[in-house]
Amino acid sequence: MSVLVTGVAGFLGLHVAEALLARGEAVLGIDDLNAAYDPALKEARLRRLLGRERFGFVRGDVGDPAFLDGWATQHGGDVTGVVHLAAGRSRKHPSHPREEVHQRIAGHLVLLALCRHRLPQLRHLVHAESGLPLPEDSDGTAGARRRKALRDAEIILGRAYARLYRIPQTCIRLARVYGPWSRPDALCQALADAIAAGRPLLLPEGGQVVRLAFVEDVAAAIVSALDDPPDPRSGTPYRLLDLAATEPVEMARLVSLLEDELGQVVEKRWGPAPPGAAAAALDDGAAAPDRRPATRIEEGIARFVVWHRKHYGRTLEEGRAAPL
């Protein structure tokens, strides 16, 4: 028996795969290693998994029905769980809506069809839906409306397959995830890069607060959810699990923690928040977390910086102020 992890060379995919392998699961990984951001980082993550006992990898696009059909012919009979993380979000999507629709919706629909037709032992499908807006999003913009429509479409499709074909599913909403092996465009990564290079930081005025979740805590929550599928005999075996309502962290404190760990203090410049920043900031009415973080922010930042120093162990080029 095995677990399929799509997007296995991604930031969260790597940590979910490692958590599953650590407890003795067989993991089958799929990733197309696309250029949404530096493919070399994805390849470095993948090298941590390749050669591990009980891990197998195939490069391919989960939005391609022919590829998945061929993959299922060899591996589908043993899959009991799926963690679908391949539909990540790219910052080039605002000007490429067709690519976003393909990645988010077509890929999700193809995977649902795979679960229905080609995975006879499947007990549970877990997939991640990012509920956090991009910084450039703001209420009423075409990009914000499109992203909301795509999130709604993913849930509608999932509920339909759960009800009609009794496929137990959990949709997980995520906060900003940080930690070792993070994406280059992630908040902590952008801050750390600027601080390590001694570049001034352009920060939003008004004491902005963000919610952060350490990647290993999120991976553990996903694996725990995978172990507890909704009852397939229920009316619609589909649930939403909110992991976005994590502990709040003030931006100024986050910068201070990174400066302390990196041993570098940089100039801060304060300016108006960019469009959409209010939507990405803390909502005072946010729900309580479904799972309290096991890693305190001080520990998480320290562990992130250890990795950052090792992976980016060079002097970063000087540049202009890094806006957030």
TrEMBL record:
Gene3D superfamilies: NAD(P)-binding Rossmann-like Domain. Residues 3-235 form the NAD-dependent epimerase/dehydratase domain. The keyword NAD applies. InterPro entries: Epimerase_deHydtase (IPR001509), NAD(P)-bd_dom_sf (IPR036291). Keywords: NAD. This is NAD-dependent epimerase/dehydratase family protein. The lineage of its organism: Bacteria, Pseudomonadati, Pseudomonadota, Alphaproteobacteria, Geminicoccales.
